[in-house]
Specification:
The structure holds 2 protein chains of 2 kinds. Chain A has helices at 3-8, 11-20, 24-46, 49-65, 76-99, 102-105, 121-141, 145-155, 161-168, 172-190. By secondary structure, chain A is mainly alpha-helical. Chain A folds into 2 domains: 9-101, Orthogonal Bundle (Rna Polymerase Sigma Factor, Chain: A), CATH 1.10.1740.10; 118-196, Orthogonal Bundle (Arc Repressor Mutant, subunit A), CATH 1.10.10.10. Chain A is globular and about 60 Å long. Chain A starts with a helix and ends in a 6-residue tail after the last helix. Chain B is an all-alpha fold. Chain B has a domain at 1-87: Arc Repressor Mutant, subunit A (Orthogonal Bundle). Chain B contains 7 helices and no strands. Chain B has helices spanning 10-18, 23-35, 37-55, 65-78, 81-90, 94-115, 120-158. Classes of the chains: A mainly alpha, B mainly alpha.
């Protein structure tokens, strides 16, 4: 890679190139910078903390193992999330295959009974918030996998359409369509929660 | 202004809900919302979605996440070729691993046999033929060199 091309690289890609050259501390910098966003993204995809951390470990292991073949063809974050999305989507596919979407179908059955004493307002408020958050979680979980991934990258990672398209391996217009349908579905399911 | 319900206006709808729309566009949009019930509903719904998603915080990352990762990286670096080869079978229960090992063994043997199909018999025949040939040559030599002696000895005995 020429010096001019290297200059246009984002800082993370430059760090990854240093990892490629054997500079391990640069990997530590990348891990520190992206650890939370990768784990949170995977968590919101799979909605199980233990699984999310295991998958995130695999993501960073793959990043480290592929250091020798790394080529900065896209933004580092796009490449990283491509791996993360791939891991999460594969896990969801396998999980659905095993459980037959058991967890999504029983949406209304496993909520705990909420019998709240009137005199404990703070506890009541906490429970109401919990119920609302549970509703958000279920609404996101009920989205088709790619729509869910697109919404999470758009909302929480503030990624551009082109980046999301590169992560999901589709066109920019397909991403817009995914997001439009996803937000439309969420509006229907969550419109009553304007006061959360 | 076009309606927000059209998908090419998604960016404007999202930006309005997120409060990141510039003042001028926001004012134009609000004028439009005042007279368009469908867009008003979409905007209110999107604001609700945005707030709801904002409220969903992911749990904190385990404090030993990095330590576990570095340990796995170190293990991966230390792993020998035999370790890499057997790694997929390690987590497997014995009931699954045994038939797989047996099958792998059978395949290996079959491969070795197919690589050397019936090798011994032709080789042995060639050796035998060569030995016969050599013996005949030797006899020829003996005959050539031995005839005068043998005739001489026969004469000697006769005398």
């Amino acid at each position: 890679m020429g010096a001019a091309a290297a200059a246009t690289l984002d800082y993370d890609a430059q760090l990854m190139l240093r990892v490629k050259e054997g500079d391990s501390p640069s990997f530590g910098v990348l891990l520190k910078k992206h650890r939370s966003s990768v784990i949170h993204f995977v968590y919101r995809m799979v909605q199980e903390q233990g699984v999310a951390e295991e998958l995130a470990q695999e993501v960073f292991l793959r990043v480290y193992r592929s250091r020798s073949t790394y080529e900065p063809t896209a933004k580092f974050k796009t490449w990283l999330f491509r791996i993360a999305a791939h891991m999460a989507l594969n896990w969801l596919r396998d999980e659905k295959h095993e459980r037959g979407q058991e967890r999504l179908d029983d949406a209304s059955t496993d909520l705990p009974a909420r019998q709240i004493s009137d005199w404990r307002l703070s506890v009541e408020q906490k429970l109401v918030d919990d119920v609302k958050l549970d509703e958000v979680r279920r609404a996101v979980a009920a989205l088709p996998d790619k729509q869910r991934a697109a919404v999470l990258m758009h909302k929480y990672e503030e990624m551009e359409y082109t980046q999301i398209a590169q992560v999901l391996g589709c066109s920019e217009s397909a991403v817009k369509s995914l997001l439009y349908r996803a937000y439309e579905t969420l509006r229907v399911r969550l419109a009553h929660m304007g006061t959360i | 202004m076009n309606c927000l319900t059209e998908d090419h206006n998604l960016e404007m709808l999202v930006a309005y809900a997120a409060g990141t729309l510039d003042l001028e566009t926001a004012q134009a949009l609000e004028q439009h919302l005042a007279g368009c019930a469908a867009c008003r509903s979409a905007a209110a719904g999107q604001i609700a979605v945005w707030k709801a998603l904002d409220a969903w915080e992911a749990p904190a990352v385990s404090p030993d996440f990095d330590r576990r990762l570095y340990r796995r990286i170190e293990q991966g670096v230390r792993l020998s070729w035999w370790g890499r080869l057997t790694r997929p079978f390690r987590a497997m229960p014995l009931s699954q691993a045994l038939p797989l090992t047996a099958s792998a063994g059978l395949l290996l043997m079959a491969g070795l046999i197919l690589r050397h199909p019936g090798p011994i018999a032709p080789h042995r025949d060639i050796v035998r033929a060569k030995q016969v040939e050599r013996t005949l040559d030797d006899l020829d030599l003996l005959r050539q060199f031995g005839t005068p002696d043998s005739t001489e000895s026969v004469h000697r005995h006769a005398m």
